[in-house]
Amino acid sequence: MKCLNCGNQLINEWTLKELFGFEEMISDRLCQLCRSQLSPLSAEEGCMRCCKPNIEKICQDCLLWEEKYQIINCHQALFEYNQFIHSYFKNYKRYGDILLAELFYKDLYNWSKHNKFDLITYIPASNGHLRARGFDPVWKMYHRVFDLTSMLIKMDADKPQAQKNRYERLQTPQTFYFHSDNVDISRDSRILILDDIYTTGRTMMHARQALEIAGFNNIYTFSLSR
After folding, report:
1. Cα 114 to chain center, whole Å?
2. Positive or negative CA dihedral for 36, 223, 70, 189?
3. How far is CA 187 from CA 38, 57, 176, 195, 214, in A?
4. b/e burial code for range 5-25 (CB count within 10 A of at least 16 → b)
5. 33: Cβ–Cβ under 8 A, 6 or more apart, which residues?
6. Separation of alpha carbons 61 and 67, rounded Å
7. What pLDDT is stored for residue 167 in this prediction?
8. What are phi and psi of 220, to 5 degrees?
9. Which pLDDT value is given to residue 82?
10. Exposed/middle/buried for 186, CB within 10 Å: 0-12, 13-18, 19+?
11. Separation of alpha carbons 47 and 60, rounded Å
């Protein structure tokens, strides 16, 4: 088996529990050389609310959301946004290498085993992005790991978030609205919203607001990168 990112040969190191059938054997899609370029995140070594690295307690973004919307952020992310992650998303989203949706399958699967929710939804692509790319990158990345329920519709914005600076991101108007005919759960149920990258939190806060207006109030968020 070869690394989906660089094509080098992959060597999976199985645990005793996996070898004896006590845990499912999930093959890695990322070789050790590529994996060494990742910077894992944790709330213990960054912002306790969003995992932003090199923050002692709470970052300015989370303080802003608390002041502006009275939201105590509950976000988790796996990896710091660095040059490796930047190149990954460039190849995956901009150039449409759809096989890269599987690159972090094992990492996402392992996280899902230890974090349970009543319902899991995601940040959808707008119609414009869907037509341009031909696929929804967030759904494609997560749908094999999580049982996803569509709850949000995203309208096309003036320009993509990736082309905005920090100030422009924070000033982005609401682009989401709640839309679902198949959600039949308590409004106190634990809901998780998935996205690929968390920068300032503006996108996630808008998504949260859309669900809160619909009556949901126990909302958590997750992204591959922060």
Report:
1. 16
2. negative
3. 37, 30, 19, 22, 9
4. beeeebeeeeeeeeeeeeeee
5. 3, 6, 8
6. 10
7. 65
8. -125, 160
9. 98
10. exposed
11. 9
- Helix/strand/coil for 9: strand
**Side chain identity, residue 184:** D
pLDDT digits (tens, 9 = 90+) for 118-169: 999 999 999 999 999 999 999 999 999 999 999 999 988 766 666 677 767 7
- Helix 202-213 to helix 60-69 angle (10° resolution) is 30
On the question of pLDDT at 9 being above 70, the answer is yes
Mean pLDDT of 91-118: 96
Beta-carbon contacts of residue 5 (< 8 Å; ≥ 6 apart)? 29, 30, 31, 34, 88, 100, 103
The model's pLDDT over 29-58, given as tens digits with 9 standing for 90+, comes to 999 999 999 999 988 889 999 999 989 899
Three-class DSSP category at 177: strand
List Cα–Cα distances, 219 to 119, 131, 193, 204, in angstroms: 10, 30, 7, 10
Is-above-0.85 flag for pTM?
yes
Residue 22's pLDDT is what?
A: 72
Give φ, ψ of 215 to 5 degrees: 110, 0
Please report where in the chains the tokens 């759809």 appear, as a residue. 98
